[in-house]
Amino acid sequence: MANYYTDHPEIGFHLGHPLMRRIAELKEKGFSDKDKFEDAPIDFEDCLENYRRMLEIVGDVSGNIIEPNSESVDLEGPHLENGRMIYASKTYENLDATRKAGLWGITMPRRYGGLNVPAVVFSMANEVVAAADAGFENVWSLQSCAETLYEFGSEEQRQKFIPRVCAGETMSMDLTEPDAGSDLQRVMLKATYSEEEGCWLLNGVKRFITNGDSDIHLVLARSEEGTRDGRGLSMFIYDKRQGGVNVRHIEHKLGIHGSPTCELTFKNARAELCGSRRLGLIKYVMSLMNGARLGIAAQSVGVCQEAYNEGVKYAAERAQFGQTINHFPGVYDMISRMKAKLDASRSLLYQTARFVDVYKCLEDIQRDRKLEADERTEMKTYSRLADALTPLAKGMASEYANQNAYDAISIHGGSGFIMEYKSQRLYRDARIFSIYEGTTQLQVVAAVRYITNGTYSSIIEDMMKEEVAEQFAPLKKRIEKMIALYEESVAFVKEQGNQEFQDFLARRLYDMTAEIIMSILIIQDASKAPELFGKSANVYVRMAEEDVIGKSSYVKNFTVEDLASFRAVEAE
Asked: Are the beta carbons of 126 and 141 closer than 8 angstroms?
């Protein structure tokens, strides 16, 4: 029987990272739950064993239920009946299986019925589920919205809603509207407090809402009359049991058919304020989106893995000119690059998730007691690292998922264009990853300040201090040369003192930043497990070198006057 976790030891390797001990100690608050809950770990080793067991269950359900159902779900998709969204029939089987396996609300504290799993382990589970079916992963992974309830809701709201999520009720985040996509400051869904009803009433339309007919919604709405910017927006909790929200339309999408994308109408829908007024976009959505971007990075890595699997399998079976096509340089070049991108993006994803875990756990501890000075410093340090790496993880993993899915089709040749083969579905599914929860262009916007203020340079400098195995020392030397080109390119752009010039070249600087960081991560991984990552380290560093040299040349030979040529093309 397939197991989408144990079949890929590269995932489990990351549980051995040195930072995992600190994460477990913080998440378990010194393992204080062991006297209150029978299933709580007693020490770090017990904690790691719990993580492994849970991931094995996720891998089993993914490999033997979710993946076998994926083709049927893709063909059937959800549909609309009397203002309600109805999932594809096999999606209900997936939901039932994950509920029976206890895989809901898994990051939530045990006192609410959760498993108290850290973000890095949840990211691993997300990856595994996404490899089986990226559309279902969307539905399942939205349980992470409970993090916002936990962080910003009242204790009464936590007690009311979080146990329901842990029992398997679904969630959604209702943010975008017909006139408010990336620019959420334009959200106009109206929230009015009713003295008569003793609650808030929501009225308006939401569009492109993933899993939009969920049981529990987090809704961004305009609570301050007369405002038109982000300062007038608040976050609300809507319970489907209250009524007042109907599904007007389900989008017919290119891919991820198992994930219903809905247009919703709110008519005097009763809701509760989550947190404080006016902080909906400024604070709560930013936190929600960072978590969602980590989720999309995990989803992307999962599809990277499955696309690689499909390419390897077909290339080993398909014979041409007297031998299987995996013996042809043009094919094994593609396959090796697919694996390198997979391993590098996975390493960046889990590094980012670990940083998120440390600062989020310390924030949680801060709710119970005052942090020590060194803990406050630690929280600030890891918060900065997480904020810097999140846009790289989301942007690069989603782009690599698209590239791997594209290459999987290329390896299949004409068969890849035939609907009977999975590679076409992976290609259709992957296309949205670099669009939703912030396009790659928006990830560049989020990252560019860290490029120009030296944050990434400082991170890279610290990473390069770590020793690597002797066999990978030549690759480290090559990375040093890449770093020099990168620093020259950043300095050149800053010297021009032109914002449009910087914005135009930002994507190239972003790619160089990410590729250098991932190069360092992959040689570090290879130093610890050369049997898993040695080949990818050799391939990825060369691939990054090729890209960094080219982009550095482009940047340093570009002028402000050259912008006119691009503007002219746009204006024609």
From this structure: yes
